[in-house]
Amino acid sequence: MSTLITIIGMIGALVLLCGYMMVSARKLSGDGLPYQLLNFGGGIALMINSAYHSAWPSAILNMVWSGVGVITIGRVVAGRAARRPGL
Q1: 66, 43 contact by CB (below 8 A)
Q2: Phi first, then psi: what are they for 77, rounded to 5°?
Q3: What is the average pLDDT value for the chain, to the nearest integer?
Q4: How far apart are CA 40 and CA 77, in angstroms?
Q5: Helix (H) / strand (E) containing 70
Q6: What is the CA radius of gyration of the chain?
Q7: Exposed, middle or buried by CB within 10 Å (0-12, 13-18, 19+), for 85?
């Protein structure tokens, strides 16, 4: 189980770094859905890893990070729905 949790944590870290690098390189928009999904997924993965290892400050940070991602994803999706004609 520990190996699986380590893999989840590594994937989460890579996903967050990839998103950050892509925004920094202007390949993704910081307020776009793809970036927010990367942030959410990476945060959840790191939260799982941190909680498993009882690293509670990091687990809480990543829980909040993921929560911000959920709120932002909701706003992006709602904004897209509001812009659709005829709905």
Answers
A1: yes
A2: -65, -45
A3: 95
A4: 14
A5: helix 56-83
A6: 15
A7: exposed
Residues 6+ apart with CB under 8 A from 42: 12, 13, 14, 15, 16, 19
Residue 30's φ and ψ, nearest 5 degrees, are -65, -20
Tell how far CA 45 is from the center of its chain.
Answer: 9
CA neighbours closer than 13 Å in the CB half-sphere of residue 23 = 16
Within 10 Å of residue 44's Cβ, how many Cβ atoms?
Answer: 19
The string of pLDDT tens digits covering residues 18-28 is: 999 999 999 99
**pTM of the predicted structure, to 2 decimals:** 0.89
The single residue listed with the structure tokens 């892509």 is 22
